[in-house]
Write a structure and sequence with these properties.
- This protein has about 190 residues and is mostly helical.
- The protein has 9 helices and no strands.
- It has helices at about 5-15, 25-35, 40-50, 55-70, 75-85, 90-105, 110-130, 135-150, 150-185.
- The longest helix is centred in the last third of the chain and has 35 residues, at about 150-185.
- The chain is elongated.
- The mean pLDDT is about 80.
Length: about 190
């Protein structure tokens, strides 16, 4: 894995090997992940390794991964890295990472990329949306126009991913209403 020239492929190789490595080699994999210069790849490698590390190393690796993710300049990649880390973080860190991921996603200028990232974040945001519905509603409101411009296949995929967030914001009635609206529009869609 250390020999792989591409940062992204090296990160994926390290993360993929993590569950199969003994503790001593996990420490070596952690060192190799830290050496990855690309912030997104580094954060993803650390996130992949973290669940398999011994307790003391896990906490430190997650802190490093979070720091690496926060340094990523590209909003799209920063948002994806933070979202990938979120499930592994403690409750307070997870909520902060999701807020940061959401803020980064909102900065993505390309509407399709923003919609894709927000749809990817949606399942992780559902619990947070129940606590902070106004922030979640603002994210939904800014994403809806981008979703409306997507193809039928993409929109249906997005709605499936967004259903936990829709339910958190408006309950089961909102999900039923969204899918009824898709059915109505579907009559005119090519």
């Amino acid at each position: 894995a250390r020999q792989v020239p591409s940062s992204w492929q090296r990160a994926m190789a390290l993360a993929g090997l993590a569950s199969h490595l003994p503790e001593g080699l996990l420490v070596e994999a952690l060192v190799a992940a830290r050496e990855i210069q690309d912030g997104y790849a580094c954060a993803r490698a650390l996130a992949g390794l973290a669940p398999h590390l011994p307790e003391g190393l896990r906490e430190q690796a997650l802190k490093e991964a979070l720091a690496a993710a926060r340094k990523i300049e590209d909003a799209d990649n920063r948002s994806k890295a933070l979202a990938a880390l979120a499930p592994h973080l403690s409750k307070g860190e997870r909520e902060q990472a999701l807020r940061e991921a959401l803020a980064a996603a909102r900065k993505i200028e390309n509407a399709n990329a923003r919609a894709w990232v927000l749809a990817a974040l949606a399942p992780r945001l559902a619990g947070w949306a129940r606590k902070v519905p106004q922030d979640a509603y603002e994210a939904w409101k800014t994403t809806l126009p981008a979703l409306a411009a997507r193809t039928r296949k993409d929109l249906l995929s997005d709605l499936r991913a967004l259903s936990p967030l829709i339910a958190a914001l408006g309950g089961p009635e909102a999900i039923a209403g969204a899918f009824r609206a898709v059915q109505d529009v579907g009559r005119w869609w090519p």
